[in-house]
Amino acid sequence: MEALEVTGRSGRTVTPETGTADPHAVASLSVHDLELWRGDYCVCTDLAATVRPGQLLHLRGGNGAGKTSLIRVLAGLALPEAGEVHLGAASARHDATAYRAAICYVGHTDGVKRELTPVENLRLAACLSLKRARRGPESALERVGLGAHMNRVCGELSAGQRRRTALARLLVTEVAIWFLDEPLVSLDRTAAALVEELIREHLDRGGIVVLATHQPIELAGLDVVAIDLPQGGGLC
Amino acid sequence: MLRELLRRELLIAWRRPGEAMTPVVFFLVTSMLFPLGLSPDASMLRPLAPGIIWVVAFLAGMLGLQRLFRADYEDGTLEQLLLSPRPLTLIILVKAMGHWLVTGLPVVIGGAVVAAMLFVPARYIVTVVIGLLLGTPVLTLLGTMVAALTVSLRQASVLGPVLILPLVTPVLIFGAHSTTLAMQGQSPVQAFEALAAMLILSASLLPAASAVALRISHEG
User: Fold this and answer.
1) pLDDT digit string (tens) for A9-58?
2) Quick one: CA dihedral B35, B36, B41, B45, positive or negative?
3) pTM of the model
4) pLDDT tens-place string over residues B38-82
5) Which residues is A42 bridged to in the sheet?
6) Chain A residue with Cα closest to B74
7) Is the dihedral of CA A114, A115, A120, A126 positive or negative?
8) A128 to B86: CB separation less than 8 angstroms, yes or no
């Protein structure tokens, strides 16, 4: 597989670890000349990266490094100062509908309504997506270990169980790219292992995962593209 | 998708009854205070009734509007709506419809009670109800746009009413005017037509404007 490259103005280049993904399932995610500021703080300039199907883009950095800001831009939730994000030919900005149809985002906040049950939350998530997965809400909740709680309102669930509900959203939508912002927050070791397993399965199917986390996560054997965001300076 | 989204809005309101009931309770209680504060005399209250009903209905509608997107913003579901490939305009229209069904429709029904309490003659109560039926959805749609604009602002509760006041003025004028005309023995049809025109315009344009406002506000 061709070597991947992530570069910033600082000249930083991160080469990926070795990988084994099927490169034919979806188009590549590419970032061109991305410049991102958060107030007076420069997160990155001239950032370029290409992530191919079966690869994981790992945004690394400590608190305040700009991981969430960057993943929000990559997901199309926020606009950068300059630069473009593409999935194949679809621009996140100009072909937003096509881009959004291909992604699923699990952010810092769970995106789970506390007044609804996990099943009701997932049913809505599936409706908001253009392409539903073969797996239904009940099956997805069983997969993330919430089978016994699927009909309790989420307000009665623990933070970890709500996080699992959010992660189950990934399973009820048939999308190419998962954006995961600190997915391990509030999760116990078993659930964290499950996240790692889900990521592996998605990559094995030729999907792409964009992961922002400062927590240890087992990525051995995966084809990883890494972007290190230094604390206090960014890639500027 | 739209039916599921509407179902979600109604289900959330059903499971948060206190919040859903606040506007109609406010509407009824505040309207009751006017006979106590002004005078229980019918000849004094009757001419003021249309204005009182519409101003209190507007204030009642404002109570819940700040929460329309705020709750979704705080729990992250707004991001899910923004990232959906489905048209955001339709999503917002459905949310506004759900909000009106939960908070506006009870005010329309309560309007009949309040009108009777303020000595509006029984044969004109239907005029009050028709006016509210046409006007309160416009108030909701205007409020939706302002709520979208201010969703990420901490001072939204202050800024919202300031932004919306000039926009709702025509609705309040024509709404109150429809009942006044009827009580003076004139036809309220023209006022209803004006309200209906505002409703059609609002339903056609404001969800799209709210979608743009929501994206700008959220991206900021």
Assistant:
1) 333 334 333 333 343 457 899 998 888 888 888 888 888 889 999 999 99
2) negative
3) 0.86
4) 888 888 899 999 999 999 999 998 888 878 898 899 999 999 999
5) A37
6) A109
7) negative
8) yes
Q: What is the CA radius of gyration of chain B?
A: 18
Q: Given strand A29-38, what is the order of strands in its sheet?
A: A6-7, A41-51, A29-38, A82-87, A90-91
Q: State the Cα–Cα distance between residues A233 and A42, nearest whole angstrom.
A: 7
Query: Cα–Cα distance between A92 and A95 in angstroms, integer?
Result: 6
Binding-face residues of A in 152-191 toward B, CB within 8 A:
153, 169
Q: Would an 8 Å CB–CB cutoff place A79 in contact with chain B? A: yes
Q: How far is B104 from chain A (nearest CA, A)?
A: 21
Name the helix (H) or strand (E) containing B6. helix B2-15
Task: Return the closest-CA partner of residue A224 out of A21, A71, A31, A12.
Answer: A21
H helix intervals, B38-153: 42-65, 67-75, 77-82, 88-99, 105-117, 122-149
Best residue in A36, A103, A128 for a mutation probing chain B (most B CBs within 10 Å): A128
Interface contact flag, B76 A108, Cβ < 8 Å: yes
Listed in sequence order, the residues at least 6 apart from B30 whose beta carbon sits closer than 8 Å to its beta carbon are B56, B59, B60
Cα–Cα distance, B91 to B8 (Å, whole number): 12
A27–chain B Cβ distance below 8 A for any pair:
no
* Mode of pairing for the β-strands spanning A55-60 and A208-212: parallel
Interface check A203 vs B, CB under 8 A = no
Residues 48-77 of A with CB under 8 A from B: 75-77
With beta carbons under 8 A apart, name residues in chain A contacting B216: none
DSSP-H helix ranges across chain A = 67-75, 96-101, 118-128, 137-143, 159-172, 189-204
CA distance A140 to chain B (A): 18
Strand partners, A51: A29
Bridge partners (DSSP) of residue A227 are A59
Residue identified by tokens 């900005």 is A93
B69 interaction partners in chain A (CB closer than 8 Å)? none
- CA dist., res. A158 & res. A138, Å (int): 19
- In B, minimum Cα distance to A99 occurs at B85
| Domains defined for chain A, CATH in brackets | 1-101+216-236 (3.40.50)
